[in-house]
Predict the 3D structure of the following.
Amino acid sequence: MEEKMAVSRNFIEQIIDTDLAEGKYETICTRFPPEPNGYLHIGHAKSILLNYGLAKKYGGKFNLRFDDTNPTKEKTEFVDSIIADVKWLGADFEDRLFFASNYFEQMYEAAVKLIKKGKAFVCDLSAEEIRAYRGTLTEPGKESPYRNRSIEENLELFENMKNGMYEDGAKVLRAKIDMASPNINMRDPVIYRVAHMSHHNTGDQWCIYPMYDFAHPIEDAIEGVTHSICTLEFEDHRPLYDWVVKEAEYEHPPKQIEFAKLYLTNVVTGKRYIKKLVEEGIVDGWDDPRLVSIAALRRRGFTPESIQMFVDLCGISKSQSSVDYAMLEYCIREDLKMKRPRMMAVLDPIKLVIDNYPEDQIEYLDVELNLENPELGMRKVPFGRELYIDREDFMENPPKKYFRLFPGNEVRLMGAYFVKCVSFEKDEDGKVTEIHCTYDPETKSGSGFTGRKVKGTIHWVAAKTALRATVRLYENIIDESKGVYNEDGSLNLNPNSLTVLNDCPIEPAFGNAKPYDSFQFVRQGYFCVDAKDSREDALVFNRIVSLKSSFRLPKAE
C-alpha cells in the first residue's frame, strides 16, 4: 500500500519526500511570486494551488511575494487584484505577504559582495553590444572589454550607479561567470541596470533595479523558501539561480523545480493582448467574463472548487500539453449541479394565456429547488392565468418528434399543470405574439394524477409577478474556426462573443439574489449575478456555462 501511494505522487512530491527523508530540510516553504504587471489568469491558478497545496500537505508555509523589480509595468491596481485572486482561490498565505522591493538593500549588498569576490563587474556596453558579444547556441561569446576592471573601480562605479550619476542604459552590473558556457544564461548575465523611475512601493529611493534572475533566488533565500517551483521556461535558468545563491553565500539554498505550464486551447492569456482589448473597449476590463483571468472567471461565476478540480484533472508533469476549455466547463458543471437551485427564467419570451384559469387568481405552487438534491428544499412559485414561455417551446407547424407546444398538443408546465394549445395570435409580420391554452386542474404536479401522460415539459414564469433581468450569453471571444491569431499577430475575434438579452422575465424568488450568486436556469444553463453591473432593482446575469457538453473524462485504464 505504501509503495502504491509513493508511485501515485507527482514528481515534485517525490523530490520533497526525498529531501525530507535525507534531512535537507526540516519543514518546507513554498511561494507564489507574481510580477504585478497585469491580472492573473487560469495558468497562474495552477501554480498558486500547486504551491499552496504542497505547503498544506507537508505542514509547511506558503508565501505570497510580489516580484516587483521592474517599475516600468507595475501598478498598485495589479497588486490589489492579485491579492484578491489568491485569497479567493483559498490559498492562505496568513501574514506572509512580501515584496521583492523590500529586499532591495539586501540585494544591493549581495551585488557588492559579488564585486568584492571578483564575481561581478560594471560594463559600459550597450544592450545591443551585449547581445552581439553573447554568441549563439553553437558559438561561445566574447568577453566584455570592461570585464577585467579592478574590484576598487567596480565598487566605485556601482556606487555611482546607485547614486544616480549615469543615464538609463549607460552602465550595467554583470555577473562574471563564463562567456564560453554552453548555457547562454551563464554568459556574464546582467544583474543590475540603471532605471530612473518611480517604484510603486519604494518611490524614488532607488534608480538601479536588480534583474529577475538575480533578484529571484535572493528573495527565495531570504524568506527561507525550500522548494522554488516554477514553469519549464526557467529550467535553463536554474544554473544561474544556484550560482547566485551559492556566491551570495546563503546557508540554506532553495531548490528550484520546474513543471509544465497549463495551456488552455483557444483563449487569450497574453497580457499585451488583454491590455489592448481593454484599451480598445472590446472588453469592459481585465475581468470581462469572456476572458480567462481569475477575476474574469470569478465574475462569470466559476468557483474556487471548480478551478481546483480542473487543476487536479490537468495533473503535474514535465510534459507540455494543451487542455480543452471544455474540461474547465465540465468542472464548473460538476461543482454546481448538486449545490445550486434550479429556477425558471424565460430568455426569449412569448405570452401564454390559460383561457379557463381564473383571471385574478395567483396560486403558489411548491416546487423543489433541485430535483437531484432534495436537501436544498422547496420554494413557492406563483402561477396565474398569464404566463411567459420561451419562444422555442412553441411551433405552429412542428417537425416530427417535437414534443413541446403546438396547436392541439398538450404539455406539462413544469411544477404546475397540463395545458393544451387551442389557438394563437400573430402580428402583421406573421410573428406569433400570444398562445392560448386550456388547463386541466386535475393534473397539478404532486397530486398523484395518472390519467394520461404527456411527452413534453416546458418552463414558464407568471407574468403578473415576474421580475425582469438582463441576461448576457457568452461565447468564446476567439473565433475558434480560425485559431487564436491572424498572420499579422492580431487576434481572431468572434463578433458574436456577447449577446445581451434585456427584459427577461424571471421568478420573483430571484429577488434576493446577490452578486456572485449562481443558479441553474431550467433548461438554459448556469448563470451568475454579475458583480459589476447588477443592482437590486436591475439584476444582470452572466451565463457561466450551458447545460450540455461534449466533454467526457477519459476512462481509467
